[in-house]
Amino acid sequence: MAGPPPHDDADTAQLSQRLDDLYAVRPPWEIGRPQQAFLDLARSGAIRGRVLDVGCGTGEHVLMCADLGLDATGLDLADTALRAAEDKARRRGATVRFLHHDARRLAALGEQFDTVLDSGLFHLLDTGDRPAFAAGLRAALRPGGRYFMLCFSDREPQTPGARGPHRLTREDITAAFAGTLRIDSLVPATIETNLDRPDVRAWLAAMTRVSAQGPKAPRPQ
Question: Residue 126 to residues 37, 38, 67, 132, 210: CA-CA distances in angstroms?
Fold first, then answer.
């Protein structure tokens, strides 16, 4: 079966500009440190090997991985965010790599990683973009490699008239990765923000690329 058509350069350029505009002021998700959910994963030893952070923003999770002695790469389409990330890395003396690249085209990197981190990227993708992202993610993960994703949950209230990330259901997530990755766990979590308000209700998903075994349903939580 043919996959979705590739995104053209004009589409990527438009998305790049929209994302860059979000950094004209400090966006809510820039908290000046890694998300606690990912810090906990790092401390548990779950993040390992070559690491790719998709939608890395200003690089806090990439730098967290460098502090662990890991080979860390971040990619984003927001030039302003990438410049800030590179500046942080220079000031901290960290050896990391940042790429201006469309996360919907992960296979085009021609590389494979042991761990892929996603803090707030997947929930920005429209339904039509999810198959290409999932297929590219599988291509970018080594067999046995793991994907950790933090995204908005449908339990987070929607402000009437406001645009923002998709509020994803458990079923949205399992459907998006069915036949691509095995979902190991999918649990309620929070996304911390710099706003004077409660943290955002989220999902934390852990998935694995397996070769011979098909995906399984999340464990009951």
Answer: 24, 24, 33, 11, 26
> Which structure tokens are listed for 162?
């406001």
Evaluate the CA torsion angle 124, 126, 128, 130 in order and state its sign: positive
pTM: 0.87
Cβ pair 94, 63 in contact under 8 A: yes
Which of 85, 80, 145 has its CA nearest to residue 116?
A: 145
What is the arithmetic mean of pLDDT over 197-218? 78
Residue 5: pLDDT over 50: no
What DSSP assignment string belongs to 185-199? Answer: EEEEEEE--SSSSPP
Contact between 28 and 194 under an 8 Å Cβ cutoff? The reply is: yes
Give the Å distances, CA to CA, from 152 to 59, 66, 98, 122, 181.
Answer: 20, 26, 25, 9, 20
β-partners of residue 74 are 53, 98
Torsion of CA 101, 105, 108, 113, to 10 degrees: 80
